[in-house]
Amino acid sequence: MPENQDVIKTHFAKVVDKYAEWAVFQAGNVCKDIRWFMPSPGETLLDVCCGPGTLSFAASPLVLESIGIDLVSEMIEKANELKEEQQVKNAKFVVGNAEKMPFKDGQFDLVVCANAFHHLSHPEKVLEEMMRVCRRGGKVGVIDIFAPPDEDQRKQFDEIEMARDESHGHSLDEHEYHELFLHAGLKDIRDWKADYRVNLTTWAGIAGLQMNSDVYRRLKSLLLESGVAAGFDPQDESNGDVSILRRNLYISGLKA
Ligand SMILES: C[S@@+](CC[C@H](N)C(=O)[O-])C[C@H]1O[C@@H](n2cnc3c(N)ncnc32)[C@H](O)[C@@H]1O
Fold first, then answer.
1. Is residue 57 part of a domain?
2. Which atom belonging to ligand 1 lies closest to the Cα atom of 30?
3. What is the pLDDT of residues 11-46, one digit of tens each?
4. Residue whose CB lies within 8 A of the most ligand 1 atoms, among 6, 8, 171, for a mutation test
5. Does residue 230 lie within any of the structural domains?
């Protein structure tokens, strides 16, 4: 099994409930996320690295059907539990590796991966696989955090991300995402960036960190030391918490 996948499995099996709580809370924003890819009612969506299925659920009123795939069986169980709770009829979930997916060539109209590329040891392999299962003329897209372009700042960025979640692999910067999409042969590439702020306690909590644990304290001190340079813009809150800036890149292209 490639490098990071054991760590990913252990991490996400441990935080599945916390992660799903946050994802359900974020559902309104995820609806906006999926709309950026302009899904159509007759289309089929593949939600790559689907976690608890948030993107699939947001897309369910907008598409014919969706399939979510994730490496972690606990995430897929959670997605199926939420599917029952929310009575979603047109979403399915399967356990599998995004590097080699059990789908036919050209099976989907829209193939999107949200919040997961930074975990991947081989993002180019996953993008290639996303292209394979997308039909000609269909859309392939990624939503994810992205690194600052400067090499030192990127190291600090990845160090902070790793301090929070050891399954964080490596973040690409905006230019590298474009190169990756171009190299994969995608056409009409377009992107958009969206910023939001989150409190450190919430952000750390989703990753399973207890406030005032040693790991939490290390994360906080790293953020206060190098968070400005790494683009997190840490700000003291009146309640003693710290708020940080998160920047997401949305990028999509058409399969020619
Ligand atoms: C931060 S979560 C994002 C989940 C969901 N896409 C969302 O936006 O809420 C990252 C997910 O990627 C999954 N993942 C990481 N590497 C994977 C791989 N190679 N194949 C399939 N899933 C993977 C993890 O199991 C985890 O559920």
1. yes
2. 8
3. 999 999 999 998 877 777 888 899 999 999 999 999
4. 8
5. no
- Over residues 199-218, the mean pLDDT reads 94
d(CA 98, CA 101): 6
- Give the CATH number for residue 21: 3.40.50.150
| pLDDT recorded at residue 212 | 86
Cα–Cα distance for residue pair 203/120, rounded to 1 Å: 20
In a domain? residue 131: yes
Three-class secondary structure of residue 137 per DSSP = strand
State which ligand 1 atom lies nearest to the alpha carbon of 116. Answer: 10
Residue-wise pLDDT for 129-171, tens only, equals 999 999 999 999 999 999 999 999 999 999 999 999 999 999 9
Query: Please, are residues 142 and 176 in contact by the beta-carbon 8 Å criterion?
Result: no
Q: What is the DSSP letter of 100?
A: B
Residues having CB closer than 6 A to ligand 1 are 8, 12, 23, 49-51, 54-55, 70-72, 75, 97-99, 114-116, 119-120
What's the structural domain count of the chain? 1
Q: How far is the CA of 143 from the centre of ligand 1 (A)?
A: 12
